[in-house]
Amino acid sequence: MSWSHLGTADALCRARTLDALADPTGVFIGAAADHRDVLRTELARTGVDISDADLADLKARVAAAIAPAASLILLDIELGAPAAIASGALPGATALVVPLEASGYGDVAKVTESQLMADWSPAAARRMGAAACKLLLPFRVDVPDQAERQYAVAARCAAACREAGTVLVLEPIVYRRPGEEIAADRYAELVVAGAERLAGADPGLLKVQHPGSADACRALDAACGPGTPWVLLGGGATEETLLAQVAEACRAGASGFIVGRTIWSDALVQDPAERERVLAERARPRLERLAAIAREHATPWRTRVGVPAPPAIDPYRATPGT
Fold first, then answer.
1. In the structure, how many helices (H) and strands (E) does the chain have?
2. What distance in Å separates the CA atoms of residue 217 and residue 201, rounded to the nearest whole number?
3. Pairwise CA distance, residues 261 & 14, whole Å
4. Of the CATH numbers 3.40.630.30, 3.40.50.300, 3.10.105.10, 3.20.20.70, which one belongs to the domain with range 3-302?
5. Could you give the dihedral angle defined by the CA atoms of residues 20, 197, 251 and 15, in that order, rounded to the nearest 10 degrees?
6. 308 or 24: whose pLDDT is higher?
7. 3-state helix, strand and coil shares in percent for the chain, rounded to the nearest 5
8. How far apart are CA 134 and CA 210, in angstroms?
9. pTM of structure
10. Of 226, 202, 200, nearest to 141 (Cα)?
11. If exposure means fewest CB atoms within 10 Å of the residue's CB, which of 85, 125, 153, 184 is most exposed?
12. What is the DSSP letter of 308?
């Protein structure tokens, strides 16, 4: 979908918001620590016993370690964002993105229609200081009833974001049913077709799974259309795999990435000192390696969408027009 349907004010607002989410080159360098269900599961699996207060502190420390190297960071509103804001962990140049969905990364195969958080909205997110909102959306075009419901949820959220003067970061997830095997070519088809369908809901940014190959990434880029920039999600891939996937996606037209667990999950240890060491010595360098690849290969979002770049600012100019 192009931007021709937007009025001038809406187009300018969208451009300014996407600029806020991107780095100065127009590439999205995104970190995510908004995980809820899956984080609890991971902590239980590793035997880490942690209270809500400690988990909030952990998320604030994750944000403090990696946010300075990111153009945006995803944080949940229950624990992560309040703790990071209160502790001063977020640099002013790093945009905050918060979720809208009521549940996190649980069993997405059981979701027929995504539920939104009660008493929460894009307008409330803006009042918190968030630059944008995210919606995790289990979505398969080959499950028509679910696809129609989920498309309607995405369209409502995108409209609410526009009304609030922000954008929706839409994250469709192609899931596997219990016991189901999806061939690689079919999986690629589902990722590409899902992105094409959901681009019609008019989100500001699509955050999508790697479809499996360089050719499929090019098909995905075409499916997103001329008016919808897209970024790659991490999905818990190993660092080596993710480095290769980000390069493939960005060469195909992606404007960056938003990844989480691959960067910081090995900091989920009981010892606070060890957490700090891992965050400093492993997490931030991982993000910086991904950022270097994205900046080398990604298409800046304004270039991809065809929106003129903003004029350069002379830092020595005292007042506009002088």
1. 13, 8
2. 21
3. 28
4. 3.20.20.70
5. -20
6. 24
7. 50, 15, 35
8. 18
9. 0.90
10. 200
11. 184
12. P
